[in-house]
Each structure stands twice: as C-alpha cells, then as structure tokens.
C-alpha cells in the first residue's frame, strides 16, 4: 500500500521546521529503534520514571507495537512521534474496526512551539487506511491539550465516562492479566460519522494498549 504524507511542518513560517516521515514498522532498522527508544525515554521521563521505563533496553514501544509510525524530524533528530495500529475493539457488544492512535510524544524542548498541531498529518493516513474511526485514550490531564489540537477543529470527539480494558503487555506473577482504565476516549470519524460510533460504557481492546 502506498501512503503519502506531508513532509513539512504546519505553516512555512513555523519555527522550528519539522519534516514528517511515514514508516511502516517492518521498515525500521535497529539504529532507528535505538533512536526512538532514547526519544521516548526523554519525552516521557519528565512525567515520571515509571512512564519512561518501558522504553529501556532499546525498546521503541510500550505495549502493542504500532503498524505505522509518523515521525517528525528537525535538525536535532526526532522531534515528535505518533503510532497507528489497525485492530478490532469491542464497544459494548459491538466488534468494531478502528485505527488506534498511541505513542504520542513531543521532545521536551519543543513543547509549546506548536509542533503538536502538525500531528494532523495523520488524518490523510487514516483515510487511506480505509478505517471507519480513529480511536485512542487520553489522560484527563491532557484533555485541554487534545481539545486544542484536534477537538476545536472538528477532527475528533472526546467521550468521557467510558472504561477501557486492556491486557498487560507482559505477564507478571503479582499482577492480574488485564487492567481497566478510567480514561477519556478520543474518536476521530474517518469513513463513518461520529453518530455511528456504538454506545457502551466499556471498551475492550482485546490486547495491550498501543
């Protein structure tokens, strides 16, 4: 499948300049996984050592591995990242194909520079993948940020009051095999309108979070 993505950051006058590349997971070499691992540790580290821990030992994913990565680069290396993964989730009693969005991060020195708004480069990718909806979960602390980035432009809807069940990416003897999060659900209508999103108060990923 050929997928085109914009290679320039939003706005020619934007500083710093970021170029975006779309990479299928199987295209990445070891050196790129190492670079991504360092990027995620630096990006998630300020929010707590626990959040950076999954990316140790050159690991460039936390739970499920993405299918596609949209990576922003500037003259210092990786500037931003978002991962995409097509999967079936269960919304209430309905099995639904979605493209899950996850592994979203912006390099700490670029926070507040408008880089996150350029994440809209993922929208044409979702359309070319032919999925009915984009789906993700958002921590309550990031609600205002995500609303500014996608919600106010009508690109996404945030649905509160939904619990999301996921499996743990690794098996631990002292932890249950699944967890339930009280997170905000983010839905991007792609091939179908938001009114066709199934009702239900529980979503089951049937796998680990992206």
From TrEMBL:
<keyword id="KW-0963">Cytoplasm</keyword>
<dbReference type="InterPro" id="IPR020567">
    <property type="entry name" value="Nodulation_prot_NodA_CS"/>
</dbReference>
<protein>
    <recommendedName>
        <fullName>Nodulation protein A</fullName>
        <ecNumber>2.3.1.-</ecNumber>
    </recommendedName>
</protein>
<keyword id="KW-0012">Acyltransferase</keyword>
<dbReference type="GO" id="GO:0016746">
    <property type="term" value="F:acyltransferase activity"/>
</dbReference>
<comment type="similarity">
    <text>Belongs to the NodA family.</text>
</comment>
<dbReference type="GO" id="GO:0005829">
    <property type="term" value="C:cytosol"/>
</dbReference>
<dbReference type="InterPro" id="IPR016181">
    <property type="entry name" value="Acyl_CoA_acyltransferase"/>
</dbReference>
<dbReference type="InterPro" id="IPR003484">
    <property type="entry name" value="NodA"/>
</dbReference>
<dbReference type="Pfam" id="PF02474">
    <property type="entry name" value="NodA"/>
</dbReference>
<keyword id="KW-0808">Transferase</keyword>
<keyword id="KW-0536">Nodulation</keyword>
<comment type="function">
    <text>N-acyltransferase required for nodulation. Acts in the production of a small, heat-stable compound (Nod) that stimulates mitosis in various plant protoplasts.</text>
</comment>
């Amino acid at each position: 499948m050929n997928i085109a993505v914009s290679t320039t950051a939003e706005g020619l006058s934007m500083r710093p300049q970021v170029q975006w590349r779309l990479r299928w997971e199987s295209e990445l070499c070891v050196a790129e996984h190492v670079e991504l691992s360092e990027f995620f540790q630096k990006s998630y580290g300020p929010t707590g050592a626990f959040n950076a821990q999954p990316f140790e030992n050159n690991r460039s994913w936390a739970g499920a591995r993405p299918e596609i990565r949209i990576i922003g680069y500037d003259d210092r290396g990786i500037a931003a990242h978002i991962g995409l993964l097509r999967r079936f989730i269960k919304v209430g009693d309905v099995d639904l194909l979605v493209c899950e969005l996850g592994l979203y991060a912006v390099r700490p020195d670029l926070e507040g520079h408008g880089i996150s708004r350029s994440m809209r480069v993922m929208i044409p990718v979702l359309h070319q993948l032919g999925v009915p909806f984009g789906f993700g979960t958002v921590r309550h602390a990031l609600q205002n940020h995500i609303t500014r980035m996608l919600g106010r432009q009508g690109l996404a809807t945030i649905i509160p009051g939904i619990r999301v069940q996921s499996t743990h990416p690794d098996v631990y003897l002292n932890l249950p095999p699944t967890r339930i999060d009280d997170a905000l659900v983010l839905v991007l209508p792609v091939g179908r309108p938001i009114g066709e999103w199934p009702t239900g108060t529980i979503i089951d990923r049937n796998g680990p979070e992206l």
